[in-house]
From TrEMBL:
Organism: Candidatus Mancarchaeum acidiphilum
Amino acid composition bias (Low complexity), ranges on this chain: 10-20
Protein name: Membrane protein
Positions of the UniProt region annotated as Disordered: 1-20
Keywords: Membrane, Transmembrane, Transmembrane helix
Chain segments annotated as transmembrane: 67-88, 94-118
Amino acid sequence: MELSKEHDNSTNAQNAAASSPGEGIVIKEIPPSADLPFTLDKGEKIIYYAKPDKDIYVHNLTSSVKYVVGIALLILALLIIGFIFFIIESLIGLVNAAIYSIAVIIIMLLIEFLAAYFTKKSALFGYQYQNYWITTKRLIRQVGITTVISQALDVMPLDTVSEVEIRDLHLSKMFQEGWTVIAHPIAFTGYMSSSGQAYGGQSLIRAFPHMTKEQAEEFKKYLVYERDLNNPNLTNS
């Protein structure tokens, strides 16, 4: 079920209440909702909540499928049409070959349309389960539907966070990923892929993608503030 604009406005209002004008930060506890997909530890409080930007999130997922599937279908259509004209055209005649080729193109366009349609529906459904929290102890990202079997949560203790950076991943209008907040762990010796997934290290880098520039800057501000409270020996530029 698609989230309403009222829900987005409510989220913004909650976070605005936790902010003060200028560069200062005033922390105001955000009451946990009944459907919170994790349990707060004793004394732990939620101080910031965010979601990816819906337009960026949906555009990125649908564009990926649209162009990848589109290219694959184009190649397949050319191969089939080539087979029709160069292999069996002499058997079925030029007119029939042209008719079959047009039918192939229509079928491929229909498949492309259905793929884009269902991908968008899936993205809108999945958007409900893309949530970011900063608590007084942890950095939490929900990456899917949380059930009894699958806890689709990515959790990072704040006292293990070192550097926090913002990356602009607007690679092109085709793949508009928006801005991503990257939380680096204190001990990391591996490498990170372009999607923000870390490999081979002692601790994983956490990525919070599909934000607007304003969202990312505010998220980073609160994250750095709370990180410094948990580990005052660290500083972040």
